[in-house]
């Protein structure tokens, strides 16, 4: 299939979390035109049911693909990927890259063999996560905790609001207070919002922890899948799309521009 040089990469999340996936992708592919879509009308995903996510995400991506004609879509959201990746792949005729918890690299790197998976409530209960833990972390204790407050903390940080340090502390305590948690040395940031507050998590940790996420691996995967495709010498400015324009969008503009998304549009 021939790809037009100006065909964008489409990144999709419920909110700003996918920016943690966009950032390494922009470094790897600086000429890529970018469309970043945030389903602000459906946010937050982490407290929704599997049925809601499985219905909503493929339908929205279908509309976005029709409108923006991307060459590839990245589901830059663990909740949507662990629930709806196969539905989205079935619905779209372009390559779809998902974001799933980085349990494999965590198991490779952990010395203590106790790993934490910090995600949304919806992600940490997925059979997809059971399978990753069984396949790659069979000799590890894999602790899980879901935090909706940490998702809100990341959104607040990008709006430039003051942050309550208790939120990061409580999220980590959700792992550390479980049996074996005191030996945990590695935490998988299994929600794309969480790398945006990694500094807050590190500051709240009672002992040094290694935080891992899939951003670099996804950037390599996008570069590989598009390796023979042309890019514009001078790509158009990136666009951020919101499914609901409300008073939470305007305060994000400066952060969005710093991620190469100076244009903001409603879907
Ligand atoms: N950023 C999303 C994830 O990776 C979900 C956040 C939310 O909407 O709850 O899971």
Considering the chains and any ligands shown, give keywords for the structure.
267 residues, alpha/beta, Rossmann fold, 2 domains, six-stranded parallel sheet, 11 helices, binds D-glutamic acid, EC 5.1.1.3, cell shape, cell wall biogenesis/degradation, Glu_race, Asp/Glu_race
Give an account of the 3D structure.
With 267 residues, this protein is α/β, with parallel strands linked by helices. It has a 6-stranded parallel β-sheet with strand order 4-3-1-2-9-10, sandwiched between helices. Helix 2 packs across helix 3 and helix 4 runs parallel beside helix 6. It is built from 11 helices and 10 strands. The longest helix is centred in the N-terminal third of the chain and has 19 residues. D-glutamic acid binds next to helix 3.
């Amino acid at each position: 299939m021939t790809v037009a040089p100006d065909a964008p990469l489409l990144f999709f999340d419920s909110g700003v979390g996918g920016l943690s996936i966009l950032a390494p992708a922009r470094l790897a592919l600086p000429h890529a035109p970018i469309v970043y879509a945030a389903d602000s009308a459906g946010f937050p995903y982490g407290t929704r049911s599997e049925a809601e996510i499985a219905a909503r995400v493929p339908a929205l991506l279908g509309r976005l693909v029709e409108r923006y004609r991307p060459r590839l879509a990245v589901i830059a959201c663990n909740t949507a990927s662990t629930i709806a990746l196969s539905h989205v792949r079935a619905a779209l005729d372009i390559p779809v890259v998902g974001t799933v918890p980085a349990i494999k690299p965590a198991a490779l790197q952990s010395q203590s063999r106790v790993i934490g998976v910090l995600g949304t409530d919806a992600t940490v209960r997925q059979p997809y996560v059971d399978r990753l833990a069984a396949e790659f972390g069979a000799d590890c204790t894999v602790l899980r905790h879901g935090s909706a407050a940490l998702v809100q903390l990341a959104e607040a940080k990008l709006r430039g609001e003051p942050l309550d340090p208790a939120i990061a502390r409580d999220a980590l305590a959700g792992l550390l207070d479980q049996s074996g948690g005191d030996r945990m040395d590695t935490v998988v940031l299994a929600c794309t919002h969480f790398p945006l507050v990694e500094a807050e998590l590190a500051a709240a940790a009672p002992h040094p922890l290694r935080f891992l996420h899939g951003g670099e691996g996804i950037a390599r995967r996008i570069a590989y899948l598009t390796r023979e495709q042309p890019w514009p010498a001078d790509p158009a400015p990136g666009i951020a799309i919101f499914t609901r324009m409300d008073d939470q969008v305007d305060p994000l503009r400066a952060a969005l521009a710093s991620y190469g998304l100076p244009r903001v549009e409603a879907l």
